[in-house]
């Protein structure tokens, strides 16, 4: 392999699976309830080399030009691009799965799985200080994590007179947890940042991968008296620079002040959904056919970062109409000010996080197959007309453009263009 160094884990990734059709055994009683039942299980290891070639060595690149003497001439210089890492190796995921498949009452199918996936040696770039003098951050195997969960699939098909009907649904539950990080502490900076506030996620043992990390709000100061009453044990003000309309920050470590380091920041939620679900419905009646497909997630947060902090005059969303503008007007949205001395907008906090649950109707299609007798002798064997709607509607409480946020780190919405609602019509011909 040219992709990794001498410590690359050469070898074969093991895998196996086994199944048992219990209903085919002699001891299985004949019945009309459970028609088929298969137990199955498996284990396997897969590798991921998702990094550029030769990242275990430090390439020499140009661009480091320098002047020689007082002549004013410039000499082309070369230097290492980054630090080498001869210990770089594959990212590996070991998966164990047990479950069953069953057919009940002939028309209902059930599939159930329990899985446990352990990923070791997660590949990502390591942030190093600028004084090291290299232009690129090196790659390393920085962390391990595990995913455990359940998956359920249901299917049903039947006929009502001349109507053929089928429906399928699936749902899964997953718990993600970081089990190891290769750092002096038990955490490393996350893979997502936002403008001047820097990193908004953290990878730490015991938490979900890239969990949101920041300050916790206790509400909004409604008047000057509340500011004076928010004191530490010594009688000093915990937020001396605050004004009515500013956020009340939680003093999590109890030192009587809001620290700028990690002491007064905490984990605020995860961008990884706990639940993922979907369904498909199909109907056929004579020449008509209908299909609907929907999907959604639940149990995750989204970082709503639609406003630029580096441009003071940039537009706010309509949510700012419910801002604090006097005592009792808001306990959720702070006052508007260009200076922002309290860090209401410049600090990463749960103010930026919103519920990411949604249910989206992804595809709906209605078609009609014209009877073949109409175009008999024309060379056409089948003619179908259809109309399709994509992303017709979304049920969500998220205030951004689209709760189905992608990107390098899921759940970070920096104004990605939303998925379009589309209506399509077409013909399908067979000759």
Question: Which labels suit this protein?
Answer:
mainly beta; globular
Helix content: under 10%
Number of helices: 1
The percentage of residues in β strands lies in over 45%
State the separation between the terminal residues, measured CA to CA.
50 Å
Strand line-up in the sheet with most strands: 1-2-7-8-9-10-17-18-21-22-24
Q: Indicate the mean pLDDT.
A: 90
Question: What form results from the Cα inertia axes?
Answer: globular
User: What's the main sheet like?
Assistant: 11 strands, antiparallel
Q: Could you please describe the fold and organization of this structure?
A:
The protein is mostly beta strands and 431 residues long. Helices cover 1% and strands 45% of the residues. The strands form 6 sheets. It has an 11-stranded antiparallel beta sheet, with no helix packed on it. A 4-stranded antiparallel beta sheet has the order 11-12-13-16, with no helix packed on it. It has a 3-stranded mixed beta sheet with strand order 20-19-23, with no helix packed on it. The model has no long low-confidence stretch (mean pLDDT 90).
């Amino acid at each position: 392999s040219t992709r990794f160094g001498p410590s690359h884990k050469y070898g074969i990734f093991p895998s196996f699976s086994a199944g048992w059709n219990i209903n085919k055994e002699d001891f299985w009683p004949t019945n009309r309830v459970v028609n088929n039942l298969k137990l199955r299980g498996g284990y396997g290891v897969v590798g991921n080399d998702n990094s550029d070639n030769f990242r275990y060595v430090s390439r020499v690149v140009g661009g480091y030009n320098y002047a020689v003497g007082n002549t004013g001439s410039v000499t082309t210089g070369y230097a290492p691009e980054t630090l080498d890492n001869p210990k770089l190796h594959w990212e590996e995921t070991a998966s164990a799965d047990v479950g069953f498949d069953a057919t009940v009452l002939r028309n209902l199918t059930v599939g159930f799985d329990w899985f446990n996936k352990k990923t070791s040696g997660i590949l990502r770039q390591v942030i190093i200080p600028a004084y090291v003098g290299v232009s690129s951050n090196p790659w390393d195997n920085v962390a391990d994590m595990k995913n455990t969960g359940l998956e359920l699939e249901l299917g049903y098909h039947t006929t009502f007179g001349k109507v053929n009907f089928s429906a399928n649904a699936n749902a899964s539950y997953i718990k993600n947890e970081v089990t190891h990080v290769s750092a002096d502490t038990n955490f490393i900076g996350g893979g997502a940042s936002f403008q001047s506030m820097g990193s908004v996620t953290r990878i730490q043992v015991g938490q979900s991968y890239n969990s949101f990390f920041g300050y916790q709000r206790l509400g909004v100061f409604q008047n000057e008296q509340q500011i004076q009453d928010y004191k530490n044990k010594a009688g000093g003000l915990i937020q001396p620079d605050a004004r009515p309309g500013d956020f009340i920050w939680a003093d999590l470590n109890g030192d009587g002040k809001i620290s700028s380091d990690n002491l007064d920041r905490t984990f605020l939620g995860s961008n990884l959904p706990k639940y993922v679900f979907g369904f498909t419905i199909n109907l056929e009646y004579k020449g008509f056919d209908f299909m609907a497909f929907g999907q959604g997630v639940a149990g995750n947060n989204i970082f709503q970062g639609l406003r630029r902090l580096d441009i003071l005059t940039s537009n706010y969303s309509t949510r700012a109409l419910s801002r604090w503008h006097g005592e009792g007007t808001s306990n959720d949205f702070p006052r508007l000010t260009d200076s922002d001395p309290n860090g209401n907008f410049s600090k990463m906090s749960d103010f930026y996080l919103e519920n990411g649950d949604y249910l989206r109707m992804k595809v709906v299609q209605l078609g009609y197959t014209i009877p073949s007798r109409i175009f008999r002798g024309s060379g056409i064997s089948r003619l179908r007309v259809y109309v399709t709607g994509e992303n017709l509607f979304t049920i969500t409480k998220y205030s951004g453009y689209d709760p189905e946020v992608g990107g390098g780190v899921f759940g970070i919405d920096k104004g990605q263009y939303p998925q379009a609602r589309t209506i399509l019509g077409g013909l399908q011909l067979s000759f």
